[in-house]
Amino acid sequence: MDSSPEVFTKEEGLRLLKAGQLDDAIKVLEKVRAKIDDAQVCAFLGAAYDQKGDKMNAIHAFEESLRLGETPKAYYNLAVVYESVHRIDEAVREYRMAVELDPNYKPAADAIERLHSQFAAAHPTPEPAVAAAQPTQSMPAGPPAASQTQAFAGPPPQGPTIGQASPPPLADPFARPTSAPPTHADLIARQMAKEQAIADQHHSLMKNGIIYGAIIGAIFFELLHVGLGFMFLMIGSLSLVSMIVWALIGAAYGSIVGLWIGYTCGGEGAGFQAGAALGLLLGIVVGLLARSLFAVVLMGVILGLLSGFVGYIIGRLVDMSITD
Questions:
Q1: Residue 18 CB: number of other CB atoms within 10 A?
Q2: Does pTM top 0.85 for this prediction?
Q3: Distance between CA 252 and CA 214 in Å, rounded?
Q4: Binning pLDDT at 50, 70 and 90, where does residue 322 land?
Q5: Domain boundaries, the chain
Q6: d(CA 71, CA 205)
Q7: Residue 277 in contact with residue 256, Cβ under 8 Å?
Q8: Is 195 helix (H, G, I), strand (E, B) or coil?
Q9: Are 275 and 310 in contact (CB under 8 A)?
Q10: What whole-number distance in Å separates Cα of residue 209 and Cα of residue 258?
Q11: Residue pLDDT, tens place only, 283-312
Q12: Cα 283 to Cα 277: distance, rounded to the nearest angstrom
Protein backbone atom coordinates (compact mmCIF):
# COMPACT_ATOMS: atom_id res chain seq x y z
CA MET A 1 0.00 0.00 0.00
CA ASP A 2 1.44 3.36 -1.01
CA SER A 3 1.82 5.56 2.05
CA SER A 4 2.23 8.78 0.07
CA PRO A 5 -1.17 10.45 -0.07
CA GLU A 6 -2.48 11.99 -3.25
CA VAL A 7 -5.51 13.72 -1.73
CA PHE A 8 -4.59 17.12 -0.31
CA THR A 9 -7.53 18.24 1.83
CA LYS A 10 -7.94 19.38 5.40
CA GLU A 11 -10.02 16.30 6.18
CA GLU A 12 -7.33 13.98 4.79
CA GLY A 13 -4.70 15.74 6.88
CA LEU A 14 -6.81 15.33 10.02
CA ARG A 15 -7.38 11.65 9.26
CA LEU A 16 -3.65 11.05 8.87
CA LEU A 17 -2.95 13.01 12.05
CA LYS A 18 -5.40 10.88 14.05
CA ALA A 19 -3.87 7.74 12.52
CA GLY A 20 -0.43 8.79 13.74
CA GLN A 21 0.98 9.14 10.21
CA LEU A 22 2.67 12.41 11.09
CA ASP A 23 4.95 12.82 8.05
CA ASP A 24 2.08 12.26 5.62
CA ALA A 25 -0.20 14.52 7.66
CA ILE A 26 2.38 17.32 7.60
CA LYS A 27 2.86 16.88 3.83
CA VAL A 28 -0.88 17.13 3.17
CA LEU A 29 -1.51 20.02 5.57
CA GLU A 30 1.45 22.02 4.24
CA LYS A 31 0.02 21.63 0.72
CA VAL A 32 -3.38 22.80 1.92
CA ARG A 33 -1.90 25.74 3.87
CA ALA A 34 -0.04 26.89 0.76
CA LYS A 35 -3.36 27.17 -1.08
CA ILE A 36 -5.74 28.62 1.53
CA ASP A 37 -5.63 30.59 4.76
CA ASP A 38 -7.42 28.40 7.28
CA ALA A 39 -6.92 28.61 11.05
CA GLN A 40 -7.98 25.00 11.53
CA VAL A 41 -5.47 23.73 8.98
CA CYS A 42 -2.69 25.58 10.82
CA ALA A 43 -3.90 24.17 14.13
CA PHE A 44 -3.83 20.61 12.75
CA LEU A 45 -0.37 21.26 11.32
CA GLY A 46 0.86 22.60 14.65
CA ALA A 47 -0.45 19.49 16.40
CA ALA A 48 1.34 17.26 13.88
CA TYR A 49 4.64 19.09 14.32
CA ASP A 50 4.20 19.04 18.10
CA GLN A 51 3.63 15.29 18.18
CA LYS A 52 6.65 14.80 15.94
CA GLY A 53 8.79 16.83 18.35
CA ASP A 54 9.41 19.73 15.99
CA LYS A 55 8.53 22.42 18.51
CA MET A 56 9.67 25.46 16.50
CA ASN A 57 7.49 24.61 13.51
CA ALA A 58 4.67 23.79 15.90
CA ILE A 59 4.95 27.27 17.44
CA HIS A 60 4.99 28.89 14.00
CA ALA A 61 1.92 26.93 12.89
CA PHE A 62 -0.02 27.77 16.06
CA GLU A 63 0.96 31.44 15.75
CA GLU A 64 -0.40 31.39 12.19
CA SER A 65 -3.59 29.73 13.43
CA LEU A 66 -3.93 32.47 16.04
CA ARG A 67 -3.42 35.18 13.43
CA LEU A 68 -6.20 33.73 11.28
CA GLY A 69 -8.61 33.12 14.15
CA GLU A 70 -8.26 34.51 17.68
CA THR A 71 -9.90 31.88 19.90
CA PRO A 72 -9.23 30.54 23.42
CA LYS A 73 -8.27 27.19 21.92
CA ALA A 74 -5.67 28.84 19.65
CA TYR A 75 -4.06 30.62 22.60
CA TYR A 76 -4.19 27.40 24.62
CA ASN A 77 -2.49 25.35 21.88
CA LEU A 78 0.34 27.87 21.63
CA ALA A 79 0.72 27.98 25.42
CA VAL A 80 0.98 24.19 25.66
CA VAL A 81 3.92 24.12 23.23
CA TYR A 82 5.60 27.03 25.02
CA GLU A 83 5.28 25.13 28.29
CA SER A 84 6.72 21.97 26.74
CA VAL A 85 9.92 23.85 25.84
CA HIS A 86 10.07 25.50 29.30
CA ARG A 87 9.18 28.98 28.08
CA ILE A 88 6.94 29.42 31.11
CA ASP A 89 6.51 33.20 30.97
CA GLU A 90 5.18 32.99 27.42
CA ALA A 91 3.03 29.98 28.31
CA VAL A 92 1.42 31.87 31.19
CA ARG A 93 0.84 34.86 28.93
CA GLU A 94 -0.99 32.75 26.34
CA TYR A 95 -3.00 30.91 29.00
CA ARG A 96 -4.06 34.29 30.39
CA MET A 97 -5.10 35.47 26.95
CA ALA A 98 -7.28 32.36 26.56
CA VAL A 99 -8.99 33.06 29.88
CA GLU A 100 -9.45 36.73 29.02
CA LEU A 101 -11.25 35.76 25.83
CA ASP A 102 -13.38 33.20 27.65
CA PRO A 103 -13.36 33.22 31.47
CA ASN A 104 -15.12 29.84 31.40
CA TYR A 105 -12.40 28.15 29.35
CA LYS A 106 -11.41 25.60 31.97
CA PRO A 107 -8.28 24.03 30.36
CA ALA A 108 -6.42 27.35 30.40
CA ALA A 109 -7.62 28.25 33.89
CA ASP A 110 -6.54 24.84 35.20
CA ALA A 111 -3.13 25.23 33.53
CA ILE A 112 -2.60 28.62 35.19
CA GLU A 113 -3.56 27.17 38.57
CA ARG A 114 -1.26 24.19 38.09
CA LEU A 115 1.72 26.33 37.10
CA HIS A 116 0.98 28.70 39.96
CA SER A 117 1.03 25.80 42.41
CA GLN A 118 4.31 24.53 40.97
CA PHE A 119 5.87 27.97 41.27
CA ALA A 120 4.62 28.37 44.84
CA ALA A 121 6.01 24.95 45.80
CA ALA A 122 9.41 25.73 44.25
CA HIS A 123 9.58 29.22 45.80
CA PRO A 124 7.78 29.14 49.16
CA THR A 125 7.10 32.48 50.87
CA PRO A 126 9.01 32.67 54.17
CA GLU A 127 6.75 32.77 57.21
CA PRO A 128 7.14 35.74 59.60
CA ALA A 129 8.88 35.01 62.88
CA VAL A 130 6.40 34.27 65.69
CA ALA A 131 6.74 36.66 68.61
CA ALA A 132 7.31 35.37 72.13
CA ALA A 133 4.22 34.27 74.02
CA GLN A 134 2.44 37.19 75.61
CA PRO A 135 -0.59 37.40 77.90
CA THR A 136 -3.77 37.06 76.00
CA GLN A 137 -5.51 40.37 75.48
CA SER A 138 -9.05 40.97 74.45
CA MET A 139 -9.34 42.42 70.99
CA PRO A 140 -11.13 45.77 70.93
CA ALA A 141 -14.21 46.09 68.81
CA GLY A 142 -14.02 47.98 65.54
CA PRO A 143 -11.27 48.18 62.91
CA PRO A 144 -7.72 47.46 64.09
CA ALA A 145 -5.40 50.28 64.83
CA ALA A 146 -2.72 51.16 62.36
CA SER A 147 -0.06 49.48 64.49
CA GLN A 148 -2.09 46.27 64.63
CA THR A 149 -2.74 46.28 60.89
CA GLN A 150 0.98 46.61 60.24
CA ALA A 151 1.66 43.66 62.55
CA PHE A 152 -0.57 41.39 60.46
CA ALA A 153 0.53 42.77 57.10
CA GLY A 154 3.50 40.42 56.91
CA PRO A 155 7.14 40.50 57.89
CA PRO A 156 8.73 43.94 58.17
CA PRO A 157 10.91 44.93 55.26
CA GLN A 158 14.53 44.07 55.78
CA GLY A 159 17.20 46.18 54.13
CA PRO A 160 20.50 44.83 52.95
CA THR A 161 23.34 44.42 55.35
CA ILE A 162 25.90 47.21 55.20
CA GLY A 163 28.41 46.40 52.49
CA GLN A 164 26.25 43.60 51.05
CA ALA A 165 24.12 43.94 47.93
CA SER A 166 20.46 43.07 48.16
CA PRO A 167 19.66 39.81 46.31
CA PRO A 168 17.38 40.27 43.27
CA PRO A 169 13.78 39.25 43.88
CA LEU A 170 12.45 36.06 42.34
CA ALA A 171 10.56 36.64 39.11
CA ASP A 172 7.02 35.43 39.68
CA PRO A 173 5.24 35.09 36.32
CA PHE A 174 1.92 34.91 38.16
CA ALA A 175 2.28 38.17 40.04
CA ARG A 176 1.79 40.18 36.87
CA PRO A 177 2.18 39.59 33.15
CA THR A 178 5.86 39.74 32.28
CA SER A 179 5.02 41.58 29.08
CA ALA A 180 1.95 42.93 27.43
CA PRO A 181 0.05 40.13 25.70
CA PRO A 182 0.00 40.46 21.92
CA THR A 183 -3.15 41.83 20.41
CA HIS A 184 -4.64 40.64 17.16
CA ALA A 185 -3.08 43.67 15.46
CA ASP A 186 0.33 42.72 16.90
CA LEU A 187 0.05 39.21 15.46
CA ILE A 188 -0.92 40.58 12.05
CA ALA A 189 2.01 43.03 12.16
CA ARG A 190 4.39 40.22 13.13
CA GLN A 191 3.18 38.05 10.25
CA MET A 192 3.41 40.95 7.80
CA ALA A 193 6.98 41.64 8.92
CA LYS A 194 7.86 37.98 8.41
CA GLU A 195 6.30 37.97 4.93
CA GLN A 196 8.10 41.21 4.06
CA ALA A 197 11.44 39.71 5.13
CA ILE A 198 10.81 36.71 2.89
CA ALA A 199 9.85 38.98 -0.01
CA ASP A 200 12.98 41.10 0.50
CA GLN A 201 15.19 38.02 0.48
CA HIS A 202 13.45 36.75 -2.65
CA HIS A 203 14.02 40.11 -4.37
CA SER A 204 17.68 40.04 -3.30
CA LEU A 205 18.08 36.54 -4.71
CA MET A 206 16.65 37.57 -8.07
CA LYS A 207 18.75 40.74 -8.23
CA ASN A 208 21.96 38.90 -7.36
CA GLY A 209 21.05 36.16 -9.81
CA ILE A 210 20.76 38.64 -12.66
CA ILE A 211 24.04 40.37 -11.75
CA TYR A 212 26.13 37.24 -11.31
CA GLY A 213 24.41 35.56 -14.23
CA ALA A 214 25.18 38.43 -16.59
CA ILE A 215 28.86 38.47 -15.60
CA ILE A 216 29.44 34.71 -15.70
CA GLY A 217 27.30 34.34 -18.85
CA ALA A 218 29.28 36.99 -20.71
CA ILE A 219 32.58 35.33 -19.78
CA PHE A 220 31.25 31.90 -20.78
CA PHE A 221 30.05 33.09 -24.17
CA GLU A 222 33.30 34.89 -24.88
CA LEU A 223 35.19 31.67 -24.18
CA LEU A 224 32.66 29.79 -26.29
CA HIS A 225 33.09 32.32 -29.09
CA VAL A 226 36.84 31.87 -29.09
CA GLY A 227 36.54 28.08 -28.87
CA LEU A 228 34.14 27.87 -31.81
CA GLY A 229 36.38 30.22 -33.76
CA PHE A 230 39.35 27.88 -33.35
CA MET A 231 37.18 24.83 -33.97
CA PHE A 232 35.84 26.07 -37.29
CA LEU A 233 39.03 27.99 -38.18
CA MET A 234 37.20 31.31 -38.24
CA ILE A 235 39.87 33.28 -36.37
CA GLY A 236 39.28 36.29 -38.54
CA SER A 237 35.74 36.57 -37.29
CA LEU A 238 36.97 37.36 -33.75
CA SER A 239 36.48 41.09 -34.23
CA LEU A 240 35.63 43.57 -31.49
CA VAL A 241 32.06 43.85 -32.73
CA SER A 242 31.54 40.10 -32.69
CA MET A 243 33.01 39.83 -29.23
CA ILE A 244 30.66 42.53 -27.95
CA VAL A 245 27.68 40.78 -29.56
CA TRP A 246 28.63 37.44 -28.02
CA ALA A 247 29.19 39.09 -24.65
CA LEU A 248 25.70 40.64 -24.80
CA ILE A 249 24.17 37.31 -25.76
CA GLY A 250 26.03 35.67 -22.89
CA ALA A 251 24.88 38.33 -20.44
CA ALA A 252 21.28 37.78 -21.53
CA TYR A 253 21.72 34.03 -21.22
CA GLY A 254 23.28 34.31 -17.75
CA SER A 255 20.60 36.77 -16.61
CA ILE A 256 17.88 34.28 -17.55
CA VAL A 257 19.64 31.53 -15.60
CA GLY A 258 20.21 33.82 -12.62
CA LEU A 259 16.64 35.08 -12.69
CA TRP A 260 15.36 31.51 -12.64
CA ILE A 261 17.64 30.70 -9.70
CA GLY A 262 16.35 33.68 -7.74
CA TYR A 263 12.72 33.05 -8.66
CA THR A 264 12.81 29.42 -7.54
CA CYS A 265 15.26 30.01 -4.64
CA GLY A 266 16.88 26.86 -5.97
CA GLY A 267 20.62 27.51 -5.70
CA GLU A 268 23.10 25.30 -7.51
CA GLY A 269 20.57 22.64 -8.50
CA ALA A 270 18.22 25.09 -10.20
CA GLY A 271 21.20 26.79 -11.82
CA PHE A 272 22.49 23.56 -13.31
CA GLN A 273 19.04 22.63 -14.65
CA ALA A 274 18.41 26.03 -16.20
CA GLY A 275 21.91 26.26 -17.64
CA ALA A 276 21.77 22.75 -19.07
CA ALA A 277 18.40 23.42 -20.71
CA LEU A 278 19.60 26.63 -22.38
CA GLY A 279 22.92 25.01 -23.35
CA LEU A 280 21.10 22.06 -24.92
CA LEU A 281 18.94 24.47 -26.91
CA LEU A 282 22.00 26.40 -28.05
CA GLY A 283 23.78 23.17 -29.03
CA ILE A 284 20.82 22.06 -31.12
CA VAL A 285 20.83 25.41 -32.95
CA VAL A 286 24.56 25.17 -33.62
CA GLY A 287 24.16 21.58 -34.82
CA LEU A 288 21.33 22.54 -37.18
CA LEU A 289 23.49 25.31 -38.64
CA ALA A 290 26.11 22.64 -39.35
CA ARG A 291 23.38 20.57 -41.05
CA SER A 292 24.46 17.39 -39.34
CA LEU A 293 22.48 15.16 -37.01
CA PHE A 294 25.71 14.07 -35.37
CA ALA A 295 26.59 17.73 -34.76
CA VAL A 296 23.15 18.32 -33.24
CA VAL A 297 23.62 15.50 -30.75
CA LEU A 298 27.27 16.26 -30.02
CA MET A 299 26.87 20.01 -29.59
CA GLY A 300 23.67 19.54 -27.58
CA VAL A 301 25.43 17.26 -25.09
CA ILE A 302 28.64 19.30 -24.88
CA LEU A 303 27.01 22.71 -24.60
CA GLY A 304 24.35 21.34 -22.28
CA LEU A 305 26.96 20.05 -19.83
CA LEU A 306 29.15 23.15 -20.10
CA SER A 307 26.19 25.46 -19.69
CA GLY A 308 24.88 23.40 -16.79
CA PHE A 309 28.23 23.79 -15.06
CA VAL A 310 28.09 27.54 -15.64
CA GLY A 311 24.57 27.60 -14.18
CA TYR A 312 25.85 25.69 -11.16
CA ILE A 313 28.52 28.36 -10.61
CA ILE A 314 25.92 31.14 -10.87
CA GLY A 315 23.69 29.36 -8.35
CA ARG A 316 26.62 28.90 -5.99
CA LEU A 317 27.50 32.58 -6.15
CA VAL A 318 23.88 33.58 -5.51
CA ASP A 319 23.72 31.29 -2.47
CA MET A 320 26.98 32.69 -1.11
CA SER A 321 25.74 36.25 -1.55
CA ILE A 322 22.78 35.50 0.74
CA THR A 323 24.52 33.40 3.37
CA ASP A 324 27.32 35.91 3.70
A1: 11
A2: no
A3: 6
A4: low
A5: 10-122, 197-323
A6: 38
A7: no
A8: helix
A9: yes
A10: 4
A11: 888 788 878 888 888 888 988 898 888 888
A12: 10
